[in-house]
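Quiz preparation item.
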C-alpha cells in the first residue's frame, strides 16, 4: 500500500512537470508570435511611411457631443406625434398643405400629398377649413401614421423656439461675415477657445474700433460658450470705454437686448471694466448686477481694484 501511494505521488509529480513544461512552451510560442507581429507591423509601418498610432482611434472633444447636449435622446418624447403641433393650413395647386412645428426644436415642416425631404406625406386632412379643429394624418418614413392636432399653448412655446433658432442663425451668419475682416492668422486657429482669446485680444487692441457694435455680433456667433464669454467681455469693454464715439446709453441698450444668463453676465463684466475710466460709480453698479453670485463677486473685486489703482485727482 505504501508502494502504491509512492507510485501515485510520483505520477502526480510527473504530470505536474509535464503540464508546467507544456505551459512554458505555449507561453514561449505565444510570446514569440507577439514579437513577430509587432516586428512585422513596425517594419510595414516603416516601409509605408506610417506609424502604428495612425490606425488608433483619434481623441474626441466636447464639441463632438454638441448635438447630444442640445437634444438628448433620454429627454425627447418617444411618441413623435407628441412633439408635433399643427400650425397652419394652406392650399397649393388646389391641394391641401399642412404646416407642422416641432415643439422640441421649433423646426417648421411642410407636409403635402407628395413626400417631403423627410419622406413624410399627408394621407388625410380632416376639417382643413378650421385650423383649431383640423387633424392632419401624416405618414412618416417608417410607415407609421401620425395624427397631428392644433394646440395653442404648445404652438406658442414652439414658435418661441423657432424665433430663437432663427435669431441664432442670423447671428451666426452675421458673425461669419464679420469674421472675414479678421486677420487670416486668427481665422486659421481651429481650437475654439484659443480662437476666442485671439479675437478678444484683437478687439482689445482696437481692431474693431471703427465699428465696435459689430464685435457683439462676433461674440454671439461663437459656438463655444467659454469663447463666446471671452469675446463678449472684450466687446463690451470697448463699448463701455467709448471707442468709436459710442455713447454709454447705446452700449447699455445693446446689453439690455441680450437675454438674461451667461452671455449677459460677461457683457456686464466687459461694460463695468470699460466704464472704470469714465464712470467709476456706474462701473460698480453694473458689476453688482451680474446675476451669477460667484462671478459677480469676482467682477466686483476686479472692478474695485481697478478703480482704486487709478491715479488720484487733486
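Solution:
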Amino acid at each position: 500500500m505504501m508502494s502504491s501511494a509512492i507510485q501515485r505521488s510520483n505520477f502526480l509529480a510527473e504530470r505536474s512537470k509535464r503540464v508546467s513544461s507544456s505551459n512554458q512552451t505555449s507561453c514561449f510560442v505565444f510570446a514569440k508570435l507577439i514579437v513577430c507581429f509587432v516586428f512585422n507591423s513596425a517594419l510595414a509601418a516603416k516601409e509605408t511611411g506610417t506609424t502604428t498610432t495612425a490606425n488608433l482611434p483619434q481623441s474626441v472633444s466636447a464639441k463632438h457631443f454638441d448635438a447630444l447636449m442640445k437634444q438628448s435622446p433620454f429627454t425627447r418624447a418617444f411618441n413623435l406625434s407628441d412633439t408635433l403641433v399643427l400650425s397652419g393650413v394652406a392650399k397649393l395647386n388646389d391641394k391641401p398643405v399642412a404646416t407642422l412645428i416641432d415643439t422640441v426644436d421649433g423646426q417648421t415642416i411642410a407636409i403635402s400629398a407628395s413626400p417631403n425631404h423627410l419622406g413624410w406625406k399627408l394621407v388625410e386632412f380632416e376639417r382643413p377649413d378650421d385650423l383649431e379643429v383640423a387633424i392632419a394624418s401624416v405618414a412618416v418614413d417608417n410607415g407609421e401614421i401620425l395624427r397631428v392636432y392644433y394646440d395653442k399653448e404648445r404652438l406658442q412655446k414652439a414658435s418661441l423656439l423657432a424665433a430663437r433658432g432663427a435669431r441664432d442663425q442670423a447671428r451666426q451668419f452675421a458673425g461669419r461675415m464679420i469674421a472675414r475682416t479678421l486677420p487670416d492668422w486668427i481665422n486659421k486657429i481651429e481650437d475654439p477657445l484659443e480662437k476666442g482669446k485671439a479675437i478678444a485680444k484683437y478687439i482689445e487692441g482696437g481692431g474693431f474700433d471703427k465699428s465696435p457694435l459689430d464685435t457683439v455680433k462676433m461674440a454671439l456667433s461663437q459656438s463655444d460658450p467659454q469663447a463666446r464669454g471671452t469675446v463678449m467681455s472684450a466687446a463690451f469693454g470697448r463699448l463701455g470705454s467709448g471707442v468709436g464715439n459710442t455713447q454709454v446709453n447705446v452700449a447699455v441698450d445693446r446689453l439690455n437686448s441680450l437675454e438674461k444668463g451667461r452671455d449677459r453676465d460677461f457683457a456686464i463684466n466687459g461694460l463695468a471694466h470699460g466704464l472704470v475710466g469714465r464712470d467709476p460709480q456706474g462701473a460698480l453698479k453694473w458689476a453688482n448686477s451680474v446675476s451669477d453670485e460667484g462671478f459677480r463677486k469676482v467682477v466686483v473685486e476686479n472692478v474695485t481694484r481697478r478703480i482704486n489703482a487709478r491715479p488720484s485727482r487733486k
